[in-house]
Amino acid sequence: MELNSYQQKAFEYQRPNIEKFGKRNWFWTIFFLLWVIAGGYALYLQISKGHGVTGMRDNVVWGLFIVNFIFFIGLSYAGAIISGILHLLRVPWGKPIIRLAQMMTIISVVVGPIFILLCVGRFDRLHYLFIHPRIQSPMTWDVMAVVTFFVGAVLFLYMALIKDLAVYRDAKLKVPKWRQKLYTALALGYRGAASQKRHLIISQNLLAIIMIPLSIIVASILSWIFGMTLRPGWHSTIFGPYFVIGALYSGCGVLIVAMWVYRKMYKLENYFTDRHFTYLGYIMLVLAAGYGYFTFSEYFTSWFGSAKWDNELITKLFSPGEYGWWTLFANLAGILIPILIVSIPATRKPNWITGVAFLMIIAMWVKRYLIIVPTLETTLLPMQDTRTEYVKYAATWPEWVLTGAGIASFLLFFTLISKFVTVVPVSGLEEAEPHFAHHSHQHHPHQHAPVKKEEVKPA
Amino acid sequence: MKQEEISDKGRRDFLKTAAIATVAATACGSLACSCSSKKATVSEKVKLLSPDGEIVEIDSAYLNHQEHMAIISKLEARQGIAGKKFVMVVDLARCKNARKCITACQKWHYRPEETEWLSVKLLKDSEKAAPYWFPKQCFHCDNPPCVKVCPVDATFKRQDGLVLIDNERCIGCKFCMAACPYSTRVFNWNEPEISFDIKDLAYNPETGIPAKVGTVEKCDFCPDRAREGLLPPCVEACPNGVFYFGDENEDTVTNGEETMSFSQLIKDRAAYRYMEELGTKPRVYYLPPKDRQFPVERGYENLDSTIKKRFEDIMEPDIKKS
């Protein structure tokens, strides 16, 4: 693989990151692993003793696990949409961050589904989903969607990796034999020949074109698990798009935070520039406004219409004695503060944007909790149950530990992948800064992007 | 890992015995029934198929009629009883929350005390309205939201109108529980305690026993009893004849004491289905609590304190007012 001087520089700069596994890396890897082990123990308890060890009961049948599922799988859809768009539009500034988005896609599509499996009472019968599928169930749609998405995401990441893998293969990295062999095998003999280039770009374009609508479809199907039921707060026609934009929004936040962490960790200031934070901040702002709009329409229509159960749910969500403070937090930290911070030029700085993105991620997690749990606590018939755990959901420690294990494995994957491939894709850096504007055309003689030129307008 | 292997082996062994039990059960079941009609001829010998596949001859005096013995295959349990269309009518004017239906149901289905397939709610439709007792079992909807969402066909609608669950198919995703607007379904959160006399019984969706951890269950209208021409235990146990059970095709319902024309009854008493607006088309009809036989307090005063607590919110202000 031939690299130009700019790419070569970028590669040499990142070379130590994939060659060495430093003390700090070990520390975090072990730390995350310990969490995963603790999660394994909690899982063992849940399997051996039954779901009684969780806080879920007959009324609130789903809890933290499904909240985590929505959260993580949402990140995955967001990563696919963002990287797909960045790829298709040939956004020059997007080149360095495209891999980050794809990493997020893969990692969360691995971590996310584990949480839906945790909601299942009989692990020994999981294969029934495939041998006795029932096509009219939204759960079956979701199984099909997630599996399809998983395959697509793996291919999409892989196609984007091939050029770099060829670079690693040819660079004679000081890494163990098996890794060199792995790079060689995975690079599929890519040498940068014209026909190889052409095939690769066609495959990538096709995958990007497939992945964007696929992400929208799968995010909607996820929302329909709730939207198709007759429960207040769930049975809503806007749930599909609401989940799509919610996924994109929180995914954008995670991307910003990941960029910040890697920039600090690997000193990537030249590649993850302040401008990246500003641009992603703008995207975050637009999505925040969109999400706020959906949230407002959702609450406003139920409140104004004030049908019996809608009203009961809204009262629950807004009364300080119940979920009021959480609702306030989710909407302040999740919508208003991000808009404010990005709008004001003085705070439109990497640290501020990252801080607010981090806060927003938490708020969006809380928001998912507010979508799931209060609705399940609002039964159409009065519960008239004296067992408090049946009336009100309270997550138990195994649920929290498993949640922690999910987050830990998410971060663990991020750590390990960044030790296997460079965080900034080196072979894709051709059109990168500082003079991207007139270069973008010249370097893509075989441009197959279906988008029109005038749409290529980065911020 | 080891633990898992062991439990897996245990399960396989269990399945093996269960399979044998089914064969034996099918053989015994039909014979037992045919024998019971000839009780007089005590010394008659009958031929039976042993678990080892041998034909043995034993004295019919040793044969017992076994309750909860599934006499049908699982496939038949999914199809339902031909020509029937089960329906229930609940007379709210007669209910005083005697809770005999609940005890009878729990006993028949070997349910622990706290998981009720059938519950009696105290409803108060609006602020000024009078509260009334409202027995609620599964409505066996004709447009069942629970069946629609099941990803593995574990819960199904039969031709006789019943909605049943196959707890050997159920994966425990609880989607049906989230989808049921009436919160009818219950989940086995922990390993259920199985009473000794049913632990070896072959499972069948019609009998619903033994229960299994990690699976969903609910009121089944007792089709195994219907096959034998018996009423569900809740209907039989009610001292006030609240429940009428019957067949819509025959246009007949009975509470054990009196038998009525179903269509006439729901016409005369202005029957309604609960939350008709949800479009679920329940198979349970309610007769409005007009001309009540008991004051509502009668079902409240002598309750156990823990159960009494369930209805405090509605009853206490109501009692104070009067």
Key traits:
heterodimer, A: 459 residues, mainly alpha, 70% helix, globular, disordered C terminus, B: 322 residues, alpha+beta, Alpha-Beta Plaits, 2 domains, 5-stranded mixed beta sheet, two-stranded antiparallel sheet, 16% strand
- The residue-averaged pLDDT of chain A reads 90
Fraction of residues in β-strands of chain B: 15-25%
Q: What percent strand of chain A?
A: under 5%
> What characterizes the major β-sheet of chain B?
5 strands, mixed
Count the E strands of chain B: 13
Order of helices and strands of chain B: HEEHEHEEHEEHEEHHEEEHEH
Are there runs of chain B of 5+ residues with pLDDT below 50, and where? 1-7, 14-40
Biggest sheet details of chain A? none
What's the quick description here?
The complex is a heterodimer of chains A (459) and B (322). Chain A has 459 residues and is mainly α.
